[in-house]
Amino acid sequence: MANRTAEFLLESPAETGTLARRLGPLLHEGDTLLLEGEIGAGKTFFARELISEILIEPEDIPSPTFTLVQTYETRLGEVWHADLYRLSHPDEIIELGLIDAFDHAICVVEWPDRLGTMLPETRLRLSFSEGPREDSRHLNASWHGERWDTVLKALKNA
Q1: What angle do CA 25, 82, 67 make, to 5 degrees?
Q2: What would the pLDDT profile of 20-47 be if each residue is shown by its tens digit?
Q3: Residue 18 burial (10 A CB sphere; 0-12, 13-18, 19+)
């Protein structure tokens, strides 16, 4: 299965939020988003905006840095927001139940390098880095699985 890519230049946090809110409704159970980037790159902000867009009832969306996983009931199904930064070994991911969640929930995973070889077969990787101006971001998307072709086409054309 070929790996595909797309690039976005997000000029401001508002543009980053808009992209996240456009992506949210395109997701369904079994989708996994892998969010990469340095601390402060916008991963958690992106996740919060995406999750907020699909919640049934508005609620606070804390960073899962200390809890490791936060779950939400949304109009699209269950969402698992995981921050794996503090994990030291991939076996800890099994204990969290994240591997099973890949099959039945929408999973948004920060620091996916901690997954090691436990990556889901189909996934969308979003890599955030600093843009040319303050508060701008480069977002490189790469995906595995044909499902994401349609999703990324819709994002690029919106």
Answers
A1: 130
A2: 999 999 999 999 999 999 999 999 999 9
A3: middle
